[in-house]
Amino acid sequence: MARVTQLIYTSTPTTVLSPADLEALALQSGRFNRTVDITGVLLYGSGRFLQLLEGQPDVVEDLYFNKIVHDPRHTDCKVLLSLHHVQRLLPDWGMGLVSMSTPASEQAAWDQICQAVAQQNPAAVFAREPAVSHLYHFIYPQAASESQAG
Question: What mean pLDDT comes out for the span 39-55?
């Protein structure tokens, strides 16, 4: 089995992005990612990005450190997770896009991710997948606060 890296990072957009801007960004990223066998998802909410990248370790690291961190469309890039030897959560998503602005859309966003993971990787156990945990806490930041307080 090929070695895979999952890298999750957050960043702050340098401008306000419209839904059309986000869609264009996801389409552009998805086209490029398919050429280098990268999969993942881009989440946007509360003025922040969170992105999961999955692929060969050298390709993921090159993309993040040599391209993404230098992209002028965002700043304050911070790696939250970098795991090696893991199975892809979203092997069929060149770059999924999830945008959240209301609690209802947050629930729809989480349902969309869960459905994609369940369809593409039925063996994933959500509570034990570190990448899924980061996605969940980005969508529901109050859950992270409550777990840290308890």
Answer: 90
Could you tell me what percentage of the chain is helix, strand and coil, using 3-state DSSP and rounding each to the nearest 5?
45, 25, 25
pLDDT above 50 for 127: no
DSSP character string of 71-133: -TTEEEEEEEEEEES---S-TT-SSEEEEE-SHHHHHHHHHHHHHHHHHH-TT--GGG-HHHH
Rg (CA), the chain: 15
CA 94 vs CA 42, 51, 97, 140, 148: distances in Å: 10, 12, 10, 24, 33
Residues whose CB falls within 8 Å of the CB of residue 28, separated by 6 or more in sequence, listed in order: none
pLDDT score at 37: 94
The strand pairing partners of 84, in sequence order, are 5
Nearest to 98 by CA among 82, 84, 114, 74: 114
